[in-house]
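Q&A log
Question type: sequence-to-structure
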Amino acid sequence: MTLAEYYRLIKDVPLPTEDQLAAFARHVADAHSWYKHLDLFKGGDFIVFVDPHAGGAFTEEHSRIHHTWQTRSQYRQRFGHLSYMYRTPGCGYETDYDVYVTMEPGNDGTDEAADLQVAPVLELPPEIAADCGFLLYPFACDNDVLVSRFEDVLAAMERGEVDHTARDLLVRLYQTRRRWLSTNEQGEHAAYLEYDAALQAAFAHEIHKIAAALEALRNHLIAAGCA
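Response status: OK
Response body:
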């Protein structure tokens, strides 16, 4: 798809509001437990874009089985037509609504998949991929499990045995968590606040990438004539 073709596809899509842009940045970070799915060093390739079909075919009758949103109407209210696609090394791009499953009660009383449908992932022009793409790391999740999952490699990073583009953030995260866990009761609260600040700093590092990509997308939407 060329950029001109994409602009024609989305020209009638309303511009996302500031609230929708902010909510969507957080949604991308929270949509999955990225510490389970993304490599600490390779991360994942993400692209934010506008999709006339954002939210997929999830309806009030057949809702999405995930905590971040359930139906198309809920999605559109929170995020408009904003969407994102992602891929991990060796895999193709996917969205959160390219595959959806209808669940129905089975013979044994438990729910089972009755119908699975696959929608093609929108082919984006290279200009959108370049301007609105970014590399996301698993510390997009401000979750304490992150450090314990990568504890060995973070310890090696502290010793200088391995490097990372966000090494200072990650080493601080590792060190403040260790101090918090080893601090006596009297100093525990202050140590936790220090650790939480490090966790939020790592999270903000990734949120900044999403927000910058969304700002680039907004410029494209204005160029496309969205209002």
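Response note: The CA atoms of residues 20 and 121 lie 22 Å apart.
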